[in-house]
Amino acid sequence: MTIRQYQTISPTLGNNVYIDEMALIAGDVHMADDVSVWPFVSARGDVNTITIGARSNIQDGTVLHVTRKTSSNPEGYPLVIGKDVTIGHKCMLHGCRLGDRILVGMGAIIMDNVIVENDVFIGAGTLVPPNKRLASGYLYVGNPMQKKRPLTEAEIAFLKQSAINYVELKNDYLNTTSNSER
Q1: pTM of whole model > 0.85?
Q2: What InterPro entries does this protein's entry cite (predicted)?
Q3: Among 93, 119, 144, 162, which residue carries the largest CB count within 10 Å?
């Protein structure tokens, strides 16, 4: 089953959400309108909350998870993904906060208590260690990550366009699924 309850908590989905039948969404996961989740994604909101903003897309093989609440960290680290965010193939996001219009390149890892401001590119294979803050308007690359350079106007425009491209693609999938079920 693609969508699972954890204890008494079930995922909540906005309008026109696409979740591939080979993805797993469990527990306290909240998706806004027009989110797409592709094959082999695992989003496990069991010990904290996962929130995914409107028009964001989570691509194949990505793992989304959280850090539990404890006496030394009463809020734990939820995972928050803003609006118009593209998460590339095979990424790992764990207990971090991403703003709006971000592109996370394939295979990137973003760890606990990282804050990524709006309008950021994170390059493929980049490792963002715990407790870092990535400033708006920059490209970050490397292991561990380094601020490489400011984004160009074209790159900033592409951040929104990437999300739009995935909304259109997930609509194609939703239409294909709807038509085949008639």
Answers
A1: yes
A2: Hexapep (IPR001451), LbH_gamma_CA-like (IPR047324), Transf_Hexapept/Carb_Anhydrase (IPR050484), Trimer_LpxA-like_sf (IPR011004)
A3: 93
